[in-house]
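Whiteboard transcription, Tuesday session. T.W. wrote the structure tokens on the left side:
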């Protein structure tokens, strides 16, 4: 008889702080997750009170710490990775010592040369809701290009371009600083609700423009304010709710 406590494996793994729900699905697809000795498949549920769940050969144990979510102002030159053998600087190196022992992961990455608002959390369900395109959580970015972008071509950003099998497109885009020239600008604001790898950079490259600087300043209705580069702060419940909302 099915248990009322049966939960999808990817949620159990994410809630345990091992990785995001999307990454947990990849672990399942790759045969890294077993339930009572059987290799699990996507869609499998389990009861963590009764079933023996192994992830990459290690027992799944829910964390003893309470859920924790941080906002960080990521500087350029840091990777959004817990560990990188070829690069010494990651965003986790910036955390204060009292947070060093907590297993956090990035709920939406920024590439090495990008900067701005980054969410670090132990809450796998929150990470899933921020990352999954179906939840349509808008992320807003300021973009500086090496050359001015013409106003007449803004529609091309929302129509999108194909690159390596991906359709890259902005939800919205508009020029900033049009006081000098209303027809073009090297500063833009771009809105996305999805987050493919280097999507904004690849989108502009596909249209013949190179991104000089890229900064995320807002997720949902939460805008980063008064947070110096390299610093992080714990978010309260109201701020976490703002991450999932749009004005």
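and on the right, the sequence the group agreed on:
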């Amino acid at each position: 008889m099915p248990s009322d406590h049966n939960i999808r494996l990817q949620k159990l793994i994410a809630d345990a702080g091992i990785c995001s729900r999307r990454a947990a699905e990849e672990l399942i697809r790759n045969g890294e997750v077993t339930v009572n000795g059987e290799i699990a498949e996507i869609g499998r549920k389990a009861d963590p009170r009764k079933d023996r769940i192994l992830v990459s050969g290690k027992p799944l144990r829910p964390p003893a710490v309470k859920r924790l979510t941080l906002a960080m102002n990521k500087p350029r030159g840091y990777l959004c990775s817990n560990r990188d053998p070829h690069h010494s600087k990651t965003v986790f190196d910036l955390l204060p010592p009292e947070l060093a022992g907590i297993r956090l992961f990035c709920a939406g990455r920024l590439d090495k040369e990008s900067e701005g608002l980054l969410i670090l959390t132990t809450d796998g369900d929150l990470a899933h809701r921020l990352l999954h395109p179906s939840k349509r959580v808008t992320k807003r970015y300021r973009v500086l290009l090496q050359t001015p972008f013409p106003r007449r071509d803004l529609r091309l950003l929302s129509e999108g371009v194909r690159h390596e099998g991906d359709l890259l497109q902005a939800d919205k885009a508009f020029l900033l600083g049009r006081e000098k020239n209303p027809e073009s600008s090297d500063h833009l604001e771009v809105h996305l609700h999805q987050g493919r790898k280097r999507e904004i950079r690849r989108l502009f490259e596909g249209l013949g423009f190179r991104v000089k600087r890229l900064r995320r300043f807002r997720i949902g209705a939460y805008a980063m304010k008064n947070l110096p580069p390299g610093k992080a702060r714990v978010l309260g419940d109201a701020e976490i709710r703002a991450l999932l909302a749009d004005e």
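Someone added at the bottom: The first strand starts at residue 7 and ends at 8.
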